[in-house]
């Protein structure tokens, strides 16, 4: 048993609740949580803008302002709700999952309300209605997503099993994306136009599916790690803030995730122009989407055994290095066809897929490290800080794709782009990802401190502190 600091000794040790062992039921239950989240999250991300512009007739610039304001508000709501949950006492069903049950119903109702269209109202009414319902939905989304994300570290303390939870969470989002992106356009549009009644029907359909998934998550998942009432009462915001500032794993994973997210936003925007203008094949985008899904599905069964053997940090870093090398090769291979480009870039997709599969397990390790520093179990607070940074990054980086495309000389008025603009688009789609992937690789290797051995030692130290036997 490791030596514990005085801060640790001041708190009653956490214990593992007497319950069934961690297993496939928990993994599937946790999968359903993100499945439920993403039915509306992806629906909103993919189709809400066209709903607002084509049905509410709100200008795209105003919609962009709405999204900016909402993201900043959501970031604040995340931290506020995370802190609130950490100060609540756990029930017999756990500390986090009861909130998923309580708040999922109002969340889904607010999601459906976003797509209610009352004919004949003024432009001012539609604008006001959009602001109110969208911000309400975003706030209620925090009340479900923060406890859902925080719950992973209470389901199991085993670092490898947490990787399984992270992988299954990614699978849940992947399945929701397939349904929304395949079924969504067939349901929401009539004769290639957004239809108000069909959007409403789609929102109700996805809402029912979302509620069903939340109920499955609540029923199938079990929180095993428990904290004492004394520890819950003794949470101290000054100690928390000081520890967050000293939490090197948290600070580094925040920076890494922010870079990765901003790159995703950039490539998501650039790829449209890369295939539409540079390759002259917009239809190839559907192949890109399909390939990404297939690659992730191939990587999923490999993630757990690789992490068990080498560690999360090590696997994620290797994946980033592979992605950087592939994009560097692509940057110096101009003249490829669209299919050749997709074929080579698939190797890079395979590399960064592993980061996507383990990123949520990084967060649970960071939460453990916070407990190691403070002796306090504040999963909601730490997870919400991580979510805060991501949403703030979304708000700041919202226009990065459009700015980058304009910077290389793209002109929508021209029937055909200049060669300089096309070359610039190609560099944005290859050289920029190479640089960012390599920067993430460097940060994982030299900045993020929790390698395989330190993660196992951390788990053992906390197990001893809680009176567990591993």
TrEMBL record:
The chain crosses the membrane at residues 28-52, 58-79, 99-118, 124-144, 171-190, 196-217, 250-275, 281-303, 315-335, 341-363, 392-410, 430-450. Its main location: membrane. It is found in: Cell membrane. The keyword Transmembrane helix applies. It comes from the Bacteria. It holds the Pfam family MFS_2. Keywords: Membrane, Transmembrane, Transmembrane helix, Transport. PROSITE patterns: MFS. Residues 250-470 form the Major facilitator superfamily (MFS) profile domain. CDD domains: MFS_MelB_like (cd17332). It is a multi-pass membrane protein. This is MFS transporter. It comes from Paenibacillus plantarum.
């Amino acid at each position: 048993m490791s030596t514990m600091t005085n801060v640790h000794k001041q708190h009653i040790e956490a214990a593992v609740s007497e319950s069934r062992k961690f297993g496939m039921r928990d993994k599937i239950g946790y999968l359903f949580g993100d499945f439920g989240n993403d039915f509306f999250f992806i629906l909103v991300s993919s189709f809400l803008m066209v709903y607002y512009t084509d049905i509410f007739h709100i200008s795209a610039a105003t919609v962009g302002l709405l999204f900016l304001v909402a993201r900043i508000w959501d970031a604040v709501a995340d931290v506020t709700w995370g802190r609130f949950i950490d100060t609540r006492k756990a029930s017999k069903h756990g500390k986090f999952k009861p909130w998923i049950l309580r708040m999922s119903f109002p969340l889904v109702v607010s999601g459906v309300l976003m797509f209610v269209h009352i004919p004949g109202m003024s432009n001012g009414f539609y604008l006001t209605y959009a602001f109110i319902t969208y911000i309400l939905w975003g706030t209620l989304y925090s009340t479900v997503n923060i406890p859902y994300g925080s719950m992973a570290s209470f389901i199991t303390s085993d670092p490898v099993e947490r990787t399984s939870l992270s992988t299954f969470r990614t699978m849940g989002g992947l399945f929701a994306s397939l349904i929304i992106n395949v079924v969504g356009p067939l349901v929401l549009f009539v004769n290639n136009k957004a239809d108000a009644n069909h959007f409403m029907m789609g929102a109700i359909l996805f809402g029912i599916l979302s509620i069903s998934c939340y109920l499955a998550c609540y029923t199938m998942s079990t929180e095993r790690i428990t904290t004492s009432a004394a520890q819950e009462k003794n949470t101290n915001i000054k100690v928390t803030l000081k520890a967050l500032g000293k939490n090197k794993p948290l600070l580094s994973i925040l920076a890494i995730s922010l870079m990765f997210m901003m790159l995703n936003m950039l490539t998501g925007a650039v790829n449209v122009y890369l295939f539409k203008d540079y390759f002259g094949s917009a239809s190839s985008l559907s192949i890109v989407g399909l390939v990404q899904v297939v690659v992730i599905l191939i990587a999923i069964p490999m993630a757990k055994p690789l992490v068990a053997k080498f560690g999360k940090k090590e696997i994620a870093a290797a994946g980033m290095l592979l992605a950087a090398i592939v994009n560097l090769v692509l940057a110096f291979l101009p003249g490829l066809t669209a299919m050749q480009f997709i074929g080579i870039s698939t190797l890079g997709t395979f590399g960064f897929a592993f980061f996507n599969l383990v990123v949520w397990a990084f967060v649970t390790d960071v939460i453990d490290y916070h407990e190691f520093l403070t002796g306090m179990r504040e999963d909601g607070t730490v997870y919400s800080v991580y979510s805060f940074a991501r949403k703030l990054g979304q708000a700041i980086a919202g226009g990065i794709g459009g700015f980058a495309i304009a910077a290389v000389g793209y002109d929508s008025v021209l029937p055909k782009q200049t060669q300089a603009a096309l070359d610039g688009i190609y560099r944005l789609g290859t050289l920029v990802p190479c640089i960012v992937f390599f920067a993430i690789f460097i940060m994982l290797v030299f900045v993020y401190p929790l390698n395989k051995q330190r993660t196992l030692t951390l788990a053992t130290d906390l197990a001893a502190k809680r009176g567990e036997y591993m």
